[in-house]
Structures are given as C-alpha cells and as structure tokens.
# Entry
Amino acid sequence: MQLPPSPDVPVEAAGVLVMTRTAPRQFLLMRHPNRWDLPKGHAERGESPRQTALRELAEETGLAPSLLELDEGFEFLIEYPVRYRGDATPRRKRVHYFLGWIDRPAPIECTEHDGGEWFSWNPPHAIQTKTIDPLLAAIDRYLRQQDSPGHAPVPVA
# Structure
C-alpha cells in the first residue's frame, strides 16, 4: 500500500459485513489475536470502494463475489486516525462498509486472520466500540427502516 502524498488526504479502504438471508440471520466476523474485525482492506489505484470491498472479501475469506449480493441501499462511512509503521505522521483512514447478503453461512478460508465466525444477529451488539458496534447499529437501523410500512422488506428466505 502506498500512502497518499499528504497527511490531509485520507487513506481509503473498504469492507463488507456479510449477512445471511436465511433465518435466523447471522453475520461474519474475522478473528485477530486480540480482537474481532471485518473483511476489509486498502484500495488499490483506480478501484472504487465497492471493488475494493469485494476484492478484499475474496482475498481474506475465500468467498467469491458471485456468492454475495451487495445491498444497493446501504453504505456506512467511518473515518479515524491511524499510524502506519515507518511513517511518523498520523493519518486519517476512511473506510467504506457495505452490507452483503449471502444465502447461508459458508465455510471461510482465512488468509490474513486467525479464523472467521458466524454470529447470531441479535442487536444491540457489543463487540468492538470503534468501528464494528457503530456499523452494526447502522445496519440495524437500516433493516428496521426497510421492514417499516411503505418500504419493501429485505428478503429473507
């Protein structure tokens, strides 16, 4: 990854929260030694956030993008400060998160994490306050809005 030339330009990244369509709903988290994370990563030159999210999902989980349907109505954007090794300058990281639907939990082939786990969808969640909890809360609000009168419900098989 090449850092932007100026610390004022955010480092772009993207990821996907994968959720099952089947009841009971489940979502995928990746395990690092000391924390949970989502499949995500830095954008390559010329990639859109959606392209980055799907590429990183395939690289980190082995899930082919063809197994997934990105929800066109949901995108969550978060920025936070980061420090990269070898760079003394604090940077801002901007991460675009998408909601991806999959029919049922699928086996995960981890390449950059200690493992992956499917969690039951039972909001509110308290997993990691910096990024995961706000993302899950935003998805909960989105799904409730979709299920409200006047909106087409999110399909559940």
Q: What stands out?
A: Residues 39 and 57 are 5 Å apart (CA to CA). The chain has two helices and seven strands. The beta strands are 11-20, 26-31, 36-37, 40-42, 69-82, 91-102, 115-120. Residues 153-157 have pLDDT under 50 and may be disordered.
